[in-house]
Amino acid sequence: MSSNVMGGHKPTKPFHDTQRWRAVALASLVLVLVTSTIIIKGKPSSPSGVSNLKSNSFHTSIQFQPSVEFMNGTNLIWQIPKSPKAVLFLAHGCNGQAANFWDKSPSCQNCVGLPEERLIVLHALERRFAVLSVSSLGRCWSFGKEKENVKWIIKWWIEKNKLEKLPVTALGASSGGYFVSALAAEIKFSSITIMIAEGRFDSMAIPESYPPTLFVHMPKDRIRAELILMNMEALRQKGIPVKEIRCMQFPLAPELLSDKIPGLDQTLSVRLFKVFHEKGFIDKNGYMRNDGRAIPWKQALMQRNLLLKKHELVKHIEEELNLAFAYHEMTSLQSDDIFDWFESHMN
């Protein structure tokens, strides 16, 4: 994720020591070769990337009108559409916050509205999901008292808003993905989505009632992709429906940033693209040469005086650069598939 989500770098093993990861990678090599094409209910796993860039132009009449509350030491932000048909709990990644999912508005002056997070919420509201986001107590999510705290918050919020009869879903990215995977063993979710994380299945008992699980990940992170394949098989052995969506890199385009980031106009987007090309941050076909956290793009733009009035959009731009490189970032490009998954397991 962008620096606000993953602490300014791209760790590939946030919860595992190096020796264990090397051992797992070697042990799973054969499995990866055998199961490189996963078949689930007769359908292959779906790669995602350039074909889903139509999501850049997602338009909706939905407006952000979130409610904000501070409870049990953390921030809750939510919005309930007219005639909701389901509930969605959202868990951010490390260094994230609930405010990342919502645009700044009169009801949420501290909201940030990162491009991928906000689009996930807009897709959810468009599909009539009541959306609840909660901030972690620390830099990343923890799995003791914090898990119990969030369980209580979700139950309290659902009862307060009289949503008890609706199916409850969850989506977590990176640290939030680990958190949702653990939470799902104790909360009755109708289905979950784990994004750019393999989950905590190696350190917990998987009940037979565990919800259908969709993994949305970026196979450029090869070690994590191998672990996801292993965990998918473990869930499948329990009779739990599983599926994966593989998110591939895609080329930048001159107007991509203005398409995805409110407040960044088309003229600036084209100028930024030109700088990225001149500095060699992208190749002749528009593909990022490295992750947005690893290239000095901010310094290059400062030299051109392109960020003096738009410094508040740095995190937003970095998120889109990370997404284009497709190593480890929140993504909304697969929103249609994600919400199709949720809706297919609501009965």
UniProtKB/TrEMBL annotation:
InterPro entries: AB_hydrolase_fold. The keyword Transmembrane helix applies. The chain crosses the membrane at residues 21-40. The gene is LOC103708619. This is Uncharacterized protein LOC103708619 isoform X2. It comes from the Eukaryota. It comes from Phoenix dactylifera (Date palm). Keywords: Membrane, Transmembrane, Transmembrane helix.
